[in-house]
Here is the input.
Amino acid sequence: MAKLKILMATRTHMEKMIAMDHRVNSVYSYRLQTSQDPLGCGFTFQRVKLPREVTIQYPRDENGLLRSWADAELIYAGMLDDLLVAYVTLETKTLPKTARVCDLVVTPEVRRNGVGATMIAACEDWTAKKRLERVLIEIPMRNFPMISLALKCGYEQCGFLDQYFSNGDPVLFFEKRLGSK
Here is the structure.
C-alpha cells in the first residue's frame, strides 16, 4: 500500500467526503446493562455477538455532516496517491483543553490497513502542538470496529450518553490523555 498523506481538507475534498461510503459492517455490538439498589446504580457495557453481520448507517446525515464540519477547527483528508480514502474532524470549543474527534471515516476498501490509526495519530500530534490535554472520540455504541480501533490506539472508555446522535443512537466516549507537552 502507498504511504498515506494527510492534508488539510479543502472544499474539493469535502465534496468527495460527502460521497464516501460512511457505513460499517459489524458482527458485534455493545449492550448496556444497568443495575440499581438502594445505594446507587451501575452501568456495564457487554460485548455481544450478533446473530448475523449488520450494516450500521453513519449517525449523521448530509446536513449533520455539514454542521459538524462547520463547527470543526480542523479537518484532515487522508490521501493514497490522489485518492481520498479517509477524513477526520476535530472540534475544540465544547470541552476545555480537549480535542474532540467528531467524525472519522475510512473507505471500506482500505479499512484494517492502519489508515484509521494513522489519522488518529495525526489528531494526537495536532492536539499536542496546540497544548491541549486530551483527545476524546465519540463512537456510536453499535460501531464495534471503531471501538476496537480506539482501544488498539490506547484510548479508554470515559463515558456514554443515550440518544446522543440525531438518529437516536447512544454514544460511547473514549479518551486519551496527552498531558502538557
Notes: Strands lie at 4-8, 24-37, 40-56, 74-80, 83-91, 98-106, 134-140, 156-161, 171-177. The chain has one domain: 4-177. The chain has a mean pLDDT of 91.
